Give the backbone structure.
Amino acid sequence: MKRWIMDYICCPECKGSLCLLESEGDETEVLKGTLTCTKCERVYSIEEGIADLLPDNQR
Ligand SMILES: [Zn+2]
């Protein structure tokens, strides 16, 4: 997931802002980590550079 995307994404459930917790990545990309919604506290995972931002009903 490219870092600049953080400026454009929000929680698919409540549109709250997401907090990035990164465990692996480089200068431009986050490869592994989690995105936590600061509003509803849902957690979305980032695996192999792909953020899983599907709402609950599409999982
Ligand atoms: Zn949310």
Q: What stands out?
A: The chain has one domain: 3-51. Residues 24 and 32 are 5 Å apart (CA to CA). DSSP finds no helices and four strands in the chain.
